[in-house]
Amino acid sequence: MRSHNPESDPRVQLGELLRDARDIQHKTQQDVAAILGLERSTVAKGETGKQVPSTRVLEIWLDGLGVTGLARTALEKMHRLARLMERDPSDVRVEPFYATEARAHTVRYWAPIILPGIIQTPAYATALFTAMRFDAAKVTEKLGVRMGRQSILERADPPDITIVVWQPVLHHQIGSRETMHDQIARLLELSDMPTVTIHVLASAHGANPGLGGAIQLAATDDAPELLLSDSLVEDQLTNDPAVVRRASSTFNNVRADALNRAGSRDVLVEAMETWS
User: Which residues contact 216 (CB under 8 A, 6 or more apart)?
Assistant: First the structure.
C-alpha cells in the first residue's frame, strides 16, 4: 500500500514544500495551474503527494513561484527521491536487462505476440501503452525508455541482432492501419542492416515451441547471458544457466523452423501491402 506519512514519504514532503512555496507567494492552486497550463486538480494532487510532477513541470512550477537558490536545490533533490518512489516496480525489475542489452555483443528476440520493443516505431509503442491503460504521462515515460533502447542499433560497434517473428504478429492490428504499415516498413528497413537478421516463422508451420511467450536474450563479454521472458502478470529476469539454456534452445528451434532472410522479406512485404 502506498504510504502518505510525511515523516517517511518524499512524495508527501515534496507536496508540502510546493504548497509552502505557493503560500509564500500568496497564490492559489488555480494560479499555479494557469502557470503550468494544467488543471487545478493536477496541482492539488502534486501538493498532497498523490502525483509527482515530471521534471519539466517541476521546473516551470518553481520558475513560476520564483523559487531559487538553496530552496530550489532542496526541492529538486526531494523531487528526485519522490520520482524514485513513484516508479513502477516492473520497470525497475527489468532495468538490468536494458543495461545489459545496451552493451551486449549479441541479442536475440523471439516475438510470438507483439513485435519486440527494440524495433517498435513510436506509433506502435504508443498504441500498445495506451491499450495497457497507462495515463498520458506514463505513456510518454515508457515511450522514452523504449526509444532510448533502440540506440544500440546505431552504436559504433552494434551488436549482432537476430529477431524471429511469428507471422500472425504481422497481422495483429496495433494502432491504426497506417501504424501497422509503417511498423512493417521499419522491419524491412532494419533487415537491410548488416548486423540485423529478421526471420519470420510462417503461420503454416502450425504450433511451435515458442508459443509459451516472448524471449529476449542479451550476451556480453563480462557476464552470463541474461534472459528476459514475458508473462501475462510479470516479466521474468534471470541469468540462471539452466533457465537461459532452455530459453536459448527454444529460440534456436523457432529460428531453425523460420524462413530464411529472403523468404522472410517476401512475407514482410506482403504483410505491409495488406495494411496499405
Answer: 97, 101, 107, 108, 109, 110, 116, 227, 228, 229
Q: How many CB atoms lie within 10 A of CB 258?
A: 25
Q: 59-88: per-residue pLDDT in tens?
A: 999 999 999 999 999 999 999 888 877 766
> Would you give the distance in Å from CA 89 to the centre of its chain?
13
Instruction: Specify whether the CB–CB gap between 17 and 75 falls below 8 A.
Output: yes
**Closest C-alpha among 221, 214, 223, 218 to residue 250:** 214
What is the reported pTM? 0.71
Strand positions, DSSP E, 176-235: 196-201, 215-219, 226-229
Count CB-CB contacts under 10 A for residue 269: 12
User: How many other β-carbons are positioned within 10 Å of the β-carbon of residue 108?
Assistant: 25
Domains observed in the chain:
10-86 (1.10.260.40), 89-274 (3.30.870)
Please give the C-alpha separations between residue 133 and each of 6, 183, 257, 258, in angstroms, as whole numbers: 29, 22, 36, 34
> CA–CA separation, 4 vs 130, rounded Å?
28
